[in-house]
């Protein structure tokens, strides 16, 4: 998946391999930080929907820019579930995003 992002950045932004690799490093830092925030919302029976919407918005923005459409789609779904106050759906979307985080690091 890393190569997919690098190829996307090179094609859409005209970056060199080195520049795309630097962008990828920043992407992972941001993605990991968002996932750490999401992880904290799995424990309480009722997550903090404001935090979930904020993190989902953050994920949507930088994932769209990086070509990580799969994460962006889940982030939008998480935002919608948080807006509806659907704890079970929020936790399901969080779990899917966390799994993608693991997959992206492979």
Per-chain topology:
Blueprint (H helix, E strand, L loop, with lengths): L1 H12 L3 H23 L9 H18 L2 H16 L2 H19 L1
Under CATH, the topology is which? Four Helix Bundle (Hemerythrin (Met), subunit A)
How many helices? The count is 5
What is the radius of gyration computed over CA atoms, rounded to a whole number of angstroms? 14 Å
* Residues in β-strands, percent: under 5%
The whole-number mean of residue pLDDT values reads: 94
Mass-distribution shape: elongated
For the biggest sheet, the summary is: none
Structural class: mainly alpha
**Any idea how many domains?**
1
Q: What is the number of beta strands?
A: 0
Which segments are poorly predicted (pLDDT under 50) over 5 or more consecutive residues?
none
Sketch the topology as an H/E string, one letter per element. HHHHH
CATH architecture: Up-down Bundle
State the end-to-end distance.
8 Å
The CATH first-level class comes to: Mainly Alpha
- Relative helix content: over 70%
